[in-house]
Amino acid sequence: MSVHINTKKENIAKTVIMPGDPLRVKYIAEKYLTNVSLVNKTRLCLAYTGLYKDRLVTVMASGMGMPSMAIYSYELFNEFDVDKIIRVGSCGSYYEEIRPRDIILVEKAFTLSNFAYQYDKENVNIIEGSSNLNKKIIDTAFKKKLDIRIGNINTSDLFYNKYENPKIRENFCLGVEMETFALFYIAKKSSKEASSILTVSDNLVTKEELTSEEREKTFDEAITLALDSIL
Predict the structure, then answer these.
(1) Closest CA to 15 of 220, 227, 179
(2) Is the dihedral of CA 154, 60, 226, 26 positive or negative?
(3) Which of 82, 185, 194, 228 is most buried per CB count within 10 Å?
(4) From its phi and psi, is residue 191 left (phi > 0), alpha (psi between -120 and 50) or beta?
(5) Residues contacting 15, CB < 8 A, separation 6+
(6) d(C-alpha 48, C-alpha 116), whole Å
(7) Predicted pLDDT at 216
(8) Stated pTM of the model
């Protein structure tokens, strides 16, 4: 049991699928897992553990933003001995051709935040996900005949902002979200594995976007990609 996750260590699987939204966690647990149990509801950051095709897995919410992701990923890695976390989330696209519902597998996460410096005085603004875990996801996508994009993402502290820093383009970011850099950084410092699979929820060029309900319930391709990658 930790400060923010109120359950026994044995109730959390070694692999965690981690959306931001607690309702998406509930949706995944009810639709895809069997023998499933609610193992955490502290602060309504829901976590369920169950079987996916005979593989034990936990699905847990991270909340929004790097601070929330950092809390939960740190405790999962360091207090519950989790080996792998796959973020399944949403992002906005910087390019017209990257449309809503497209899937991006994050190779590197870039941030303008000083997250790494605050953590341990390290001047790091870009970090890779797990190459081993990403390879499994790529291989799974190929077997499923699922088209995915592979590239960098901008992890921002802001949801509403008007200024686009040129460093975002210089680091070849395909889109923007709010959690992946923290996940990758905490994973690296904990000597664990992390990946991030993002479904495009809105296009910042064309202004095309999914509704709130669609964001909650229509990311099934990314969800099954993550789940099948851990088998």
Answers:
(1) 227
(2) negative
(3) 194
(4) left
(5) 55, 56, 57, 58, 82, 83, 84, 85, 86, 230
(6) 30
(7) 64
(8) 0.96
pLDDT value, residue 217: 64
Residue showing tokens 């509930």: 26
Reported as a pLDDT band with limits 50, 70 and 90, residue 212 is: confident
Quote the tokens at residue 200.
């495009």
Per residue in 154-207, pLDDT (tens digit) is 999 999 988 889 999 999 999 999 999 999 999 999 999 999 999 999 999 999
For residue 46, give Cα distances in angstroms to 16, 119, 185, 215.
Answer: 12, 26, 23, 18
For the annotated catalytic residues, the residue numbers are: 202
Q: Alpha helix (H) ranges present in 6-80?
A: 22-32, 66-79
Question: Environment class of residue 152 by beta-carbon count within 10 Å: exposed (0-12), middle (13-18) or buried (19+)?
Answer: buried
Tokens 């933003």 correspond to what residue? 65
Sign of CA dihedral 126, 124, 76, 160: negative
pLDDT of 153 reads: 98
Q: CB within 8 A of 64, min separation 6: which ones?
A: 20, 178, 179
The first and second tokens of residue 161, run together, are: 């902002």
Give the CA distances from residue 68 to residues 2, 21, 182, 228, in Å, rounded to whole numbers and listed in that order. Answer: 14, 12, 9, 26
Distance CA(74)–CA(47), nearest Å, equals 15
- Considering only CA atoms, give the Rg of the chain: 16
